[in-house]
Design the sequence.
């Protein structure tokens, strides 16, 4: 390993992965319009890692220092080996989290997870109305989610509800929080849609107005003041309306590591949109080498890669120039400043996106739901008009 | 909240306290979070077990670190912080 580099410039790093996200399958019974999974996921649904490979991944990442484990997807419960994976994770000392839509969570399975040592379950909820829940997920899952929430509570798990916020539910924040409180949620994450994957191609259909966001934040703050520590509420601010970008993933290859269904090792969910980066795969490479030595993980560590205005920016340590994937998707240059930044010469693309999202003609275009069929159509180039504004398939 | 010498605390529900070899420190793990504890904080939380009183914990740490000035004050400060963060819960 290289000398201590203070995150400045080196071919290697002294950081350790603390969070491992296992995107264990891209198969999903839901078809959410805002899913951040890659739109071309259909290419990656073959060749899912088998149980033994996941056990090896868990062991290797734990050895490197990972302590938080998210078991995600797709819908992880579509795999029948989650019980084995949970048990292994517990024995290794991970704090493990099942991130689920609730579809497929039976009494038998939740009991097995409890016995195996799963630490918590994060359940996605969509709205207080059955109509919007079913519309945005393109499923009939409203009643099931409430039933699953009760099962989670009944087994003594901390209940973490994740609600992705968009135009269709943002005016229901107060009612959503009331529902969460009534269900006994310990944590609620109000995650304003970030525009990657399916949410990017549906941006005109999903993005709320600045006024709606401001109102939602105000309502959230009032609610938080009232409930205090009893129910912790996180409000994930949407970056399009911000003046500075987010410190994406807390830095590229700094603390997060994602292993995808087919074994690719990534520093963030959407890193594969950046061209000419070859990501390691656990079938070929040990995870240690992937983290420390692979060109892909080292590409955006430190700040040697930065261009102006980031390079000489006094605020560069605050956000590290923002998100590399967003920079590429929207400007065609992964080394440029995240266009969300008002100091970016490309800020106009964000301003145009905000204006477009208020254009009734563009709003009226149909949502492209996350389905295998739509993923295939995208892979075959049938949605190229819709994708023309982006520099890569999101 | 005033910390009393007879108080007993435990690690809060849904939280886990453990030693991390790779990080060479104690950590607190909870839903969506992980906090690395510095040496002193880790030593205090390591003795929070749902049985020992603050007095016993203070005695134990005084024996282990006899030359540390204002040790008792540091321990109380750490307990207060842990309570505020909801990492620990009062038992008695």
Sequence:
């Amino acid at each position: 390993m290289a000398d201590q580099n203070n995150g400045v410039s080196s071919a290697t790093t002294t950081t350790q992965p603390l969070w491992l996200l296992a995107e264990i399958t891209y198969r999903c019974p839901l078809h959410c319009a805002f899913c951040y999974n890659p739109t071309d996921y259909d290419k990656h649904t073959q060749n899912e890692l088998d149980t033994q490979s996941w056990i090896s991944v868990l062991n290797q990442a734990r050895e490197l220092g990972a302590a938080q484990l998210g078991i995600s997807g797709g819908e992880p419960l579509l795999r029948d080996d989650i019980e084995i994976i949970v048990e292994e994770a517990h024995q290794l000392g991970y704090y493990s989290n099942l991130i689920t839509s609730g579809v497929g969570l039976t009494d038998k399975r939740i009991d097995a997870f409890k016995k195996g040592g799963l630490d918590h379950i994060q359940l996605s909820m969509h709205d207080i109305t059955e109509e919007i829940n079913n519309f945005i997920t393109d499923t009939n899952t409203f009643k099931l989610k409430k039933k699953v929430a009760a099962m989670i509570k009944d087994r003594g798990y901390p209940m973490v509800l994740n609600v992705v916020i968009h135009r269709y539910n943002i005016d229901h924040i107060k009612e959503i929080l009331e529902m969460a409180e009534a269900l006994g949620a310990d944590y609620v994450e109000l995650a304003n849609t970030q525009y990657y994957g399916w949410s990017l191609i549906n941006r005109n259909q999903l993005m709320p107005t600045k006024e709606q966001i401001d109102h939602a934040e105000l309502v959230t703050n009032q609610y938080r003041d009232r409930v205090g520590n009893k129910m912790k509420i996180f409000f994930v601010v949407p970056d399009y309306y911000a003046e500075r970008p987010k410190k994406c993933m807390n830095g590229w290859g700094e603390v997060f590591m994602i292993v995808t269904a087919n074994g690719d090792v990534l520093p963030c969910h959407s890193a594969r949109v950046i061209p000419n980066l070859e990501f390691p795969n656990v079938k070929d490479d040990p995870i240690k080498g992937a983290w420390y030595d692979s060109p892909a993980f080292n590409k955006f560590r430190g700040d040697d890669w930065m261009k102006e205005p980031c390079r000489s920016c006094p605020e560069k340590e605050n956000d590290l120039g923002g998100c590399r994937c967003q920079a590429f998707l929207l400007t065609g240059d992964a080394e440029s400043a995240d266009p969300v930044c008002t100091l970016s010469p490309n800020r106009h693309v964000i301003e145009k996106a905000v204006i477009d999202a208020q254009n009734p003609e563009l709003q009226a275009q149909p949502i492209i739901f996350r389905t295998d069929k739509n993923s295939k159509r995208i892979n075959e180039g049938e949605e190229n008009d819709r994708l023309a504004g982006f520099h890569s398939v999101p | 909240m005033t910390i009393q010498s007879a108080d007993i605390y435990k690690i809060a529900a849904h939280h886990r306290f453990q030693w991390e070899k790779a990080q060479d420190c104690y950590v607190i793990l909870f839903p969506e979070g992980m906090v690395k504890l510095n040496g002193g904080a880790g030593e205090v939380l390591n003795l929070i077990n749902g049985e020992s009183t603050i007095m016993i914990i203070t005695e134990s740490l005084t024996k282990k670190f006899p030359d540390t000035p204002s040790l008792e004050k540091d321990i109380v400060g750490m307990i207060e912080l842990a309570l505020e963060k909801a990492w620990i819960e009062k038992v008695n």
